Amino acid sequence: MKKYVLLMLLGCASNLFAQKLKMEFKPGIIVEEYTPEKTGIHRELPAGYSERMLDEIQNRNARATQSQQYVKAGTQVIVTYETIPPDDVKIIFERAANLWASTLNSDVPINIYIRWRSLAAGVLGSAGASTNVRNFVGCDRLNTWYPVALAEKMAHKNLNGSNPDILATFNSDFTDWYTGTDGVPKINQIDLYSVVLHEFGHGLGFIGQMGLSSSDNTKAGYGYPGIFDQFMVNADQVALTDTSQIDNPSTALKTQLTSGALFLNSPSITRLNGAKAKLYAPNNYSEGSSTYHVDQATYKVGDPNALMTPQIARGELTRDIGPIVLGAFNDFGWSSSNIIADNYNDTEDVSKDIIFSAKVYSDTLINESSVKLMMAIDKSILSATSVPLVKSGNTYTYTLPKSNATRKINYYWTANDAGGKKFTTPAQAPVISGTNFGSYYDFTIGADTVKPVVLYENPIKYIFTSQTKINLPTLLTSDNIGIASVYMEYSINGAPFERQNFTKVAGETFSYSTAFNFTAGQLKAGDVVRYRVIVADAAKVSNVVYLPSSGYYDFKVLALADPVSAYVQNFDSTPSGDFFLKGFNLIQTTGFSSVALHSAHPYADGNEESYDGAGGSDKFTNNDALLLKPIKISAENPKITFDEIVLVEPGDTGEPFLNSDGSVNRSFYDYVIVQGSKDQGKTWSNFANGWDASLNAAWLSKYNSAGDADGNSTAIATSSLVKSHEIDLLASGDFKVNDEVVIRFRLHADVGAHGWGWAVDNLKIQGPKVDPILAIEPTALTKGLQISPNPSAGTLKVIYEQAADLDGLVLRVIDLQGRPVFNQSYPTQGNRFEQQIDLSYLSSGTYALQLQVQNQLVLRRFVMVK
């Protein structure tokens, strides 16, 4: 029998419904795909199953005519359609929504957005929570993700505006749907009601955050756990989120997720189900099926817990939510008690009383005498004592009398339900071992001396004279009493400073932006622009933050030369004015016989810009060598060739340079790359993917040959590691013939390990396909020329012999640019010439040895390796 697999894919969806969220959230849609049969446990219908189910449905209908179905008051599920589906389909969506509404209890409407549309063959649909929320007022667990519908129930407020809580999409082209509600699907049909009920279950909370590591599938891990994850245990009752027992991430965690002995355990599950719930944890981890379904073999077709198994059989009818899900949801928070109270901001106003207020909600009974506001004034939160409260309905208040003294107030709320279960706001107050985050509220009354928190990075290192508008990075700032002003002061070449304000980004809480707006021709080559950013808070005596903390940011104005058709450079004579260098130098370093373009050896870890753009500690540095002569791309030979050594940190084995969305894969770590700009430096594109030490086995071996305690490579390169590299300027598709392109060489370093770096020599951009001096057709005499050793480290032995006597000859050595680097005439006797020449002064690379014999040339290539 063919079965369908319910696959959950945790991914970054388009977020069309999550863009306006102000709460901290993890974007993503929990997706279920039903695909044709594949290996695994088969979902078979037991004998007589259809007949028994039909009898059960008829009995239910008979009972329904005798008594009204109970629906919990106050729970409203709103279903919105992209386009209205057929009536029989619409009835199924709304009945599934109604069943969940009668099961759950929330005073905030649950919004479901449904799309009934064409999908790919073999895909029946997808559904899930539109977003997850953590650390909201009313939650039970710190740093734990909750599906937004559950979070809203516990917060007793709408957390995502007009956005839906669950997004569902189902395949309108699938021909084998069973869309009845009073019968049983045929043996070849998939019951739409069962599928929709299952999908809504994931969106409401039957999902978590654990999975295989994206960079190492031998490990499993998670960022912050989901509420589901907090109740997962192994066979020994060890919680999977107990990092004192199971590291995160780790191979040990993967072992648990693939153990076949993974369980969901909570008091309500045990009470309603009689035992903890066994989860689906096959030995071969199945993305989207493992972990967040109940075990297929334990809860077979017809079992009351079969709804949330990872597979559904054709003909299967699973329309009961089941005791496992009901028990789990009860303890996840769908049956909970919550204290909803304000977290006050600092204030300088000492002339007013402060009124503390909290509303207490419960799905059970509250022990009213247990409701307390615990407060400590100018003391540790561990010294907090209760204060007298005034009760009015479910609202409790306390008035703190005004005082002229500056006071630090620490506080939290706590209560017990009638069964003795404690709940607090903020969650798990007053303290959690190892962290203070969210474990109590605090604010100060009195003169403010706290400076704003400001996150800002300056990535601007150079611009071009042709640029007039230069957008600065977004600045993020917050303050305990508010921000009064954000502006910058800037100067060109030491002129008087000018002020320019930042503007708050519309719809954002912490973001500010601005831009330099220069007039055409205002900037000249060599100009230096200095600036600093000033952020002042709203205190009576402003607290000010300067960025940088001392001095100024600066960037240089560069001019581009006229475009050229080719550029050839061996760096032996300094190419004055051809390059702008940041993190590079033109030097002759140890182990090399000539000048080349070198990064710092070793190069530094990333320390300038943050990947998240918000000033975090995950930083990077770009080291650039920028050619100021634009190249007009030719159809004849659109190639860059150069000799190089690349000893930069390799990425994880097998990781591609780019992600599927075109962004650089963070698991690639450090890399070197050649990029081009066809709009005079405003935007840049890659000619080819970046690379690292793993591009060449000799480089990788050298990089790994020596290291320090911090994991950095201490290996030092020599010219024997030189390899040639060729890049096609047209291969990426971002450039075309006749484009005038600025070219830069970039070494990108993250905060992790570093190595010796990058060296580039013998650069040729659109040079002749074959140098004219090397293009001479070799004659039959060439076979009489012998050179050894080849490759050579410095000394070359030349032997030439021909039938006739020699009458003198000229020996030349020519580099790939066609320039002679050795030229010597020799007298001869007889028909044989033998000479040893010293070429130790040459750098590594490819050369040609040329013998001129009478009016003929004899040619042979050789390689110098130092």
Automatic annotation (TrEMBL):
InterPro entries: MetalloPept_cat_dom_sf, Secre_tail. This is T9SS type A sorting domain-containing protein. It comes from the Bacteria. Coiled coil: none annotated. It holds the Pfam family Por_Secre_tail. Residues 787-863 form the Secretion system C-terminal sorting domain. Keywords: Signal. The keyword Signal applies. Residues 1-18 form the signal peptide.
